[in-house]
Structures are given as C-alpha cells and as structure tokens.
Amino acid sequence: MLTLSSISISFGGLQVLQSLNLTVPGRGIFGLIGPNGAGKTTVFNLITGLLVPSAGTIDFLGQRLNGSLPHRITRSGIARTFQNIRIFKEMTLLENVLIALGGRASYGAASVLLPWAGYREAERLDRESARGFLARVGLAEKAEQWAGTLSYGEQRRLEIARALATEPKLLLLDEPAAGMNGIEKQQLVEEVVKLNGEGLAVLIIEHDMSVIMGLCHEIAVLNFGSVIARGTPNEIRANPEVIEAYLGKEEQTHVRSEEMLS
After folding, report:
1. Which CATH architecture has domain 1-71+203-262?
2. Exposure of 127 by Cβ count < 10 A (0-12 exposed, 13-18 middle, 19+ buried)?
C-alpha cells in the first residue's frame, strides 16, 4: 500500500533519516517504534507532505507522493492524527467533524446562495454523516457538546473521528495513547481494532509498548534514522538489536527487556 524507498532528510546538518526503506501493508495494524529522536514523526510528516525528502521516493497505491501538497495527499486516502491534539475546543464535536468533511462536501458555493438548489438537503446529509463518524469512536451522544469539555482520551477519539471524515484508506496515528489512563488506552485499542476490522489500514507510532504489542500485527523499529528490525510483536520483543536500542548493551538483562517490551 505505502512504500518509502531510500528516504533521506536532514535538518541543519543533522541527518534524521538515512536511506530509509519501509513498506506498509494494505491491511492490518502496523507499528513504528523506536527511541526518542529516532525519526518516527519525521516519517509521518514526510508521508503527509509536511516535509519533503532530500532523497528517495514515497508511493501510495501506485501514486508518487513526493512534492504533493498535504490536502492532495489527504484526498488520495491518507489521514493522520498528531502528537499534540489539534481540535477546535470552542466548537462542538459535530462542528469539528463537519470542518473535516468540508474537503468533500456535497454542495458548492452556488448551492449555498441558492438553497432551493439542494443546499439544505446536502447540509442535512453532511450533519448525518458527521454524526456517523462520531458514533464510530463512541462519541455520538456528545455531538452537541463543546470539544473543550471532553476528557483527554475523548479529545483523542474526536481527532480520530475528524481523520475518519476524510474517508482514508490508511490512518496514521501519532502516539494516540499519550496522556491516557488505563481504561482510555483499552478503549483506544478496541476502537482501532474495530476500525481495522472495517477494512481501514493503520500505521501507528506509540511509546507505550503494552499498546503496541497488544495491537499490532507487525512492527518496524527505527534507530538513528534507519530500520533496524521488522517482525511480529514476539519477534521484536526478543530481538537483541531492539533491546540494545532501547536499553543499551550494559542493561540487556532478561528482566529489563521484558519490562521494556512486554
């Protein structure tokens, strides 16, 4: 589905990614992990057009993404969430999702000026659609609440609903469990599994290894801008190179590795 080939990028002389090769399958839940500064969020920013690689190519469903504007990449079928929640807290949940729907609204400027041309019906359908996306993340009953009144975990779920409103084929989640309590994390896992079961491919960055290991079908590990390992959760958990990347050679004990990657 998504292929990054020989991707390199540097910032101010610091090489962040070095000839990175990564393929994300068209189904399942794929994890991208690594120590702080490994380049994980940079990968997301490159995929979504916020950054442009200095070398290499990015292809999605046979389409070259290099140089494409972010909104065009979204329209091609890629949506994302961010480490720092980006919602409009002084709007309702419904309004937040309607904004995300704007890029594919079923009416144009002319119909806004000519209500009899179908604008009112199109608006009703879009509101109904927005409520549907909220329902998919368990927030339908709070559609008319201000987004700023939501708990942290609910705000994360609202951000996912906004991403779903663009009707992606691939959903990129950047540390979605950050700041969540145990119950919220379990709800998140259940919701991501449900979305994947509906046919949505997921690429997730997450520092909480219990979430990653319990959620992903396959995982790639970044360190110093390159992929050092790829495999199932059990294979990654037992990989000595991964343990070294997280713990260092002097602390590669069985107990510490289990604490870090279990």
Report:
1. 3-Layer(aba) Sandwich (3.40)
2. middle
The distance from CA 236 to its chain's CA centroid, rounded to whole angstroms, is 21
Alpha carbon dihedral 115, 116, 121, 123, in 10-degree steps, equals -10
Tell me how far apart the alpha carbons of residues 252 and 244 are, in angstroms, rounded to a whole number.
6
The CA radius of gyration of the chain, in Å to the nearest whole number, is 20
Q: How do residues 163-208 score in pLDDT, each as one tens digit?
A: 999 999 999 999 999 888 899 899 899 999 999 999 999 999 998 9
Report the alpha-carbon distance of residue 171 to residue 184 in Å, rounded: 19
pLDDT, tens only, 44-73:
999 999 999 999 999 999 999 988 999 999
| pTM for the whole structure | 0.86
